[in-house]
Amino acid sequence: MVQRFNITAIDGDFGDADAVRLYRIDLDKETLTLTQTVPKTDGADFAADFDTALSAVTVPDDHPVFFLIQTDTRNEFILLNYVPDASPVSLKMQAALAQPTVKHLLARFSVVDALHITTREELSYAGYEAHVRSKSANAMSADELRLQELDRAVAAEMPRALPGMAAPDRKFTGSVASLVPMEEDVRPAIDALAAGDARHVILSTNNELVSHVATVATDDTTKLAELVPGSTPSYTITRYLVASVPKYEFVYCCPDGSRVKDRMVTSMMKRALVHYLKNEVHLDVVHAHEISDLDDFADLEADWVHAAEAEPAATEGETADAQLAAAGSSHAANTFKKPRRPGRPGATRVLPHPE
C-alpha cells in the first residue's frame, strides 16, 4: 500500500514571492516548514544568483531538505529535493514520498522542473545545467537509434494480418533496405548464391550488423542442422531449381536459449532482410520460415528436395509459383511460417512479412 502524508499546508510565511530567489522547506516527520528565505540579488540574473542564494542558506549533510528557487520568469520555480547520501534510509523514503505533496502544496507557484539531488556538487548551477543537458540529450546510442529507425520503418510498411491468415499483397514503399547494416562479405556471399555457385548462405548478426557465417557449396550434402549455429539466432537462404527456375527459401532460426538482445536484433531485421533480398538482390524468395528447433530443418529440406525433384510441367499461362504449389509444397508464399513437424499437434503459426 502506498504511504500518504497527512499534510495540508506548509508552515511559514512565503511573503512577496516576486522578491524572493530561494525558499528552504524542511520535512520533520509529517510536518513541512518554511525555514529560510533568500531575496534576489539586485542586478543578478538566475544563473549568477543560483549559487549565491544556495550559499546563503544552511545545507544539511545528514537529512533531506527541499529548495524552491525562482528563475528570472515571474512565479516560475525549480524544486530541488536534496537528499544527502548520509541520510538515514527512513528519511530518504519520507522525502521521496513527500515530494508529490510538496508540489501539490506549492500550487500557487509554477514549478516547471523538479530535481532529485544527492551530492553537494549537484546542488549548484553547474549541476542544474548538467540536468538540463541530460534531459535534452538522447540516451540511446547511434546503433540503438538506427535499430529504432529500422523498427519504425518496418512497422510502418508491414502488412497487417490476423493470426492464421496470410498478409495482404503489399510492397514496401520506404527505403528499409538501406537500413539493413551489413558486413562487407555478406553481399558477395549472396551474389554467389544468386549465381548458382552455392547451395546455402548462413547469416547472423554481429554488433547489430548482418554478418556472414558460412557459404555451403552446391555439392555439399551436409544437413543444415549441422551447419546452423545452435545457440544464436541466424538466417539461412537456400537456393534450388523448380522446372529449371531458381527459387529461394529464407529461414529465420531463433533457438530458445539465445540471448534476449540477439533475439530482439535479429527479429527486428528479418523482414527488412527479406525485403532486401527480393527487391535489391532480386531473388525470388517464395517462402520465409521461422523456427526455433534445428531439427525443423529436416522437414524443410525434405520439402525443398520434393519441390525440386517433382519439376511439374507447366500448363499454358501457369506461373513458376503455381508449379511450385503443384509440386506439393504445403507452405503459403509471402508469410513467415513455423513448420509443423510430423506428429506435432496444433495449427501452423503464420506471421506477415513484406514483399
Automatic annotation (TrEMBL):
<dbReference type="GO" id="GO:0030042">
    <property type="term" value="P:actin filament depolymerization"/>
</dbReference>
<dbReference type="InterPro" id="IPR002108">
    <property type="entry name" value="ADF-H"/>
</dbReference>
<keyword id="KW-0963">Cytoplasm</keyword>
<dbReference type="GO" id="GO:0005737">
    <property type="term" value="C:cytoplasm"/>
</dbReference>
<dbReference type="GO" id="GO:0051016">
    <property type="term" value="P:barbed-end actin filament capping"/>
</dbReference>
<dbReference type="InterPro" id="IPR028458">
    <property type="entry name" value="Twinfilin"/>
</dbReference>
<dbReference type="GO" id="GO:0051015">
    <property type="term" value="F:actin filament binding"/>
</dbReference>
<keyword id="KW-0677">Repeat</keyword>
<dbReference type="GO" id="GO:0005884">
    <property type="term" value="C:actin filament"/>
</dbReference>
<protein>
    <recommendedName>
        <fullName>ADF-H domain-containing protein</fullName>
    </recommendedName>
</protein>
<dbReference type="InterPro" id="IPR029006">
    <property type="entry name" value="ADF-H/Gelsolin-like_dom_sf"/>
</dbReference>
<feature type="region of interest" description="Disordered">
    <location>
        <begin position="314"/>
        <end position="355"/>
    </location>
</feature>
<feature type="domain" description="ADF-H">
    <location>
        <begin position="1"/>
        <end position="133"/>
    </location>
</feature>
<keyword id="KW-0009">Actin-binding</keyword>
<keyword id="KW-0206">Cytoskeleton</keyword>
<feature type="compositionally biased region" description="Low complexity">
    <location>
        <begin position="314"/>
        <end position="333"/>
    </location>
</feature>
<comment type="similarity">
    <text>Belongs to the actin-binding proteins ADF family. Twinfilin subfamily.</text>
</comment>
<dbReference type="GO" id="GO:0003785">
    <property type="term" value="F:actin monomer binding"/>
</dbReference>
<comment type="subunit">
    <text>Interacts with G-actin; ADP-actin form.</text>
</comment>
<dbReference type="Pfam" id="PF00241">
    <property type="entry name" value="Cofilin_ADF"/>
</dbReference>
